[in-house]
Prior knowledge:
The protein is mainly alpha-helical. The chain has eleven helices and two strands. The protein has helices at residues 9-12, 24-37, 49-56, 60-72, 91-115, 118-136, 140-156, 161-181, 191-203, 206-222, 236-239; strands at residues 76-79, 83-86.
Amino acid sequence: MIGTTIGVNAAWLGQQATYFTEDKDDHIYNELVKAIVEHRLLPGSKLPEEALAETFGVSRTGIRRVLQRLAAVQLVTHLPKRGAQVTTPGQDEAVNVFQTRKMLECANLPSVVAACREEHLLAMEGIVAQEQQAHRDQDGAAAIRLSAAFHVQLQAIAGNNVLTEMVSQLTLRSSLVIAVYGAPWQQGCRCHDHSDLLALLRRKDCTALVDHMARHFDDIVANLRFSQGGDETPDFARIFAKTGLQEPL
Length: 249
């Protein structure tokens, strides 16, 4: 077990965990978060209350509560006279998100190295193997969520739940950045980088690990392409097909 699993990453990894409780609002919240992070709902996509209420079979009041929660974690933006839409991060914000992750994650690595045990390494190797398979299968959604899971679970090894939660939230915002500014082939991080980081962790080479992580983030920023995305209302029925409000598997 890798410390504490944070947020929706738990559900992504199939660990039968949930983000909050299992009432209707929470289920819809989780479905929208996953759709945004996995790039099924792209930045700039309109989120009309009526269409979402019809899709999920709930009231507009319930949808409004969920959209307010998403706005609180900066995944959704409310625009005057235009309603809610998936947040489109600006160029400065895009760079700052990754600079902040670089500072936080690199600073925590000495604690990760000190706390790391064989069971942690085995669990991390499992994530990397799944991520590599997702790239081979060209499964973009899986590659994105596993890339985020690698970073969150790596930081969770140190046992600092506050920092891990911060990294978890930043990975959500990172996904928006990649959706807007990433190259067409860019799905999460380059998984060979994660393999290299894991090898350095196994050797407990803290200096090299920190240096490699810093370069990892620098490379991501260097590959961003600063052009804006679209602005449209998605096909919610298709995106959320077979989800509804049933209990998660």
